[in-house]
Amino acid sequence: MPQGYLAIVLHSHLPYVRHPEHEFFLEERWFFEAMTECYIPLIHIFEALVKDGVDFRITMSITPPLMSMMTDELLQQRYSQHITRLIELAEKEEERTRWEPKFHRLARMYKKLFINASRTFHDRYHRNVLNAFKKLQDYGVLEIITSGATHGYFPLLGIRRESIRAQVGVAVDLYTKLMGKKPRGIWLPECGYNPGDDFILEEFGLKYFFVDTHGIMHAETRPKYGVFAPVYCPSGVAAFGRDTETSKQVWSVNEGYPGDFDYREYYRDIGWDLDYDYIKPYIHPNGQRINTGIKYYRITGKTNHKQPYNPDHALEKAAIHAGNFMFNREKQVEFLAGIMDRKPLIVSPYDAELFGHWWFEGPQFLNYLIRKIACDQKTIKLVTPSEYLAEYPVNQMTVPSASSWGYKGYHEVWLEGSNDWIYPHLHKASERMTQLASMFPQAQGDLLRALKQAARELLLAQSSDWAFIMKTGTMADYARKRTKLHIHRFNGLYEDIKWNKINPSWLAELEYKDNIFPDIDYTYFLPCKSKTAV
Predict the structure, then answer these.
(1) What is the pLDDT at residue 3?
(2) Known catalytic residue at 351
(3) Catalytic position from the list 351, 387, 446, 511
(4) Amino acid 534: pLDDT
(5) Residue 204 CB coordination number (10 Å)
(6) Domain 414-532 = CATH 3.40.190.10
(7) Catalytic residue among 93, 94, 162, 190
């Protein structure tokens, strides 16, 4: 019998980026790169573990925007073209590097990686990789949870409680439609929690969520077990706290595993290194150099003179790090088990895109870790939050504090000088959406279409990604444009609906461009019940 448990949580999210009005749109590559480097490699790892009979549990959020992109026919077609071009480039690289053994081997490695991704995408799952994750959930090894409809940051949207209710309700509906069952848990976007939000989660049947460490440790009543057991909110929904030690081992810039010198260097890509005329067919059509995904160097150290990447050394290091991670969890659990009257739970949440995209060896690290936990020790066991709650249904009741997992732990990332201008617009639009829902609670025909589209535009404007990108300064112009665009479209629809001047052709254009949530229920924006207020 294990002395304690480990819950690994992978948060999978990308903003909804889909531009049918353009033949090539740079930001759509965020999704294509994550498909090739993260989501499909994780599918391969999990399926191999199932095939080998390894008993494991992983919790994984797949946000509604990501689910929507995975199942969108246009993006499926464009990813098909993307991976086909990558295979073509890898074949050219295989030929170009034939007299450079260190690089030739890597070119062949990438060719194999891209071909396997293409086969999984086209042949095995017929362009819909969400079905792969659904299958793994049906096997019982994955517990897939939901998130906010467009990853809106709840604490800063909460001045209009209807917005949070819509973010949750629309998300639960989409999950139920695509996964064939209701979600048990939710990843609060950016781990952003505000006391009282849990009543909205309870309304939609959600059983648990996650907060950062200080959200638990600064709770209204200090938790008896710290972050090593869940607490119940007054609503009856459970809150799980993040363990800081496991976070540091993976996330820390200076001490985390992904910074090891033997791992692949993310920032050296042939899209920037090779002759312009040679690489031009595989970069932006306007001639702008971009990453291709083919990278030949290892981190090496803080130097511009990078050494060639050696996959054998990198995989060996991933196995060593997996063993070190497991050893530390064993010692952590042994200590905690000696002072707790129940089996401790260590909650380790990470952005899924770290594994494969930023940390190329990340999927193999998980592979080694899961196998080692299953075969090399008996101190810890992998579980899901649902399983832990089933074993320990009685937990302390308290109210977690307002918190996030962003820089400094609260709201500063999403509310500062570069992005604070968006919130008066978002709050006013939410107020107007509630007004429209109250005026027309049972709409039909074009009025119904317009109300649904207004709700879509508002939700898309609320995405926390835009404020985050403005803060970091990467692609900030795009983030500002997206925010303004959706607010402008919402306001236009509001005026058309209010004054009975709906333009069917313009409405059809918006439905074509912003087609997320085809079955959206705009009445979620009706005034909230009193118990959800704080």
Answers:
(1) 97
(2) yes
(3) 351
(4) 44
(5) 18
(6) no
(7) 190
